[in-house]
Each structure stands twice: as structure tokens, then as C-alpha cells.
Amino acid sequence: MSVEEQMIENAKEGKVLTHKCSSCGHLHLSTVYYCQKCGSKGFEDTILEGVGSIATYTIITVPPAGFEKHTPYAFVVLQLDNAELRISGFMGGIATPDDLPVGTRAKITGFDERGIIIEKQ
Question: What is the pTM of this model?
């Protein structure tokens, strides 16, 4: 199974596939090829819970082709708990900033044609 397929399967279970550097232990999203901290190319897979708080987002009211039925929605950046990692995803039903204050608790709940799905906790 490819790294992308593993990432998708984990997202469907509300989890995040990460790579932990074998040399220094620094955590990375699974899309890196060398450690950003020490330069090592050795990694071991580590699965994290896809839970955290909203760091930032963009509300989409004029969607790209194929996303019209999902409007309005937010493309969000989720700061994961217990890791210095952020992951982006899709959150439906967000029309105004009042709908999603920065810091709102959220979690990964799945993956579909939109990408990673994130919902409020």
C-alpha cells in the first residue's frame, strides 16, 4: 500500500499517519523524504489521533467546479494535540467567522472526494 493510501485509510479512522525520524525522533507528516531537523532519511510510521484545535481557515463561498453542493465550507488547518504538526482539511457548513472561532476543538472524521474531513468536536 502506498503512503497516500495509508494516509487515506488512517484519515477514514480519524487518525493521522506521521513519520518519526529514526535518528532524532522529530515528527513529520507522511509526505516528507528527509528529516527537517537533522536531515536523516530514516523514518518509522507513527499513528496519531486526528484531534486538535483550529489554527486558521479560509471560508469558501465561491467554490471551484465540483464543490458547488458543499458551499459554504471552510478549508481549515488543524493543530494536532501533543504534536507540533498541522494538517489541512475540509469542514462543511461554515459560512461566517462566527461559525468557527480560531481555537475551536475539532477532529478528523473521514476522507472522501473533498479530501480530509474535519468536524467540530
Answer: 0.91
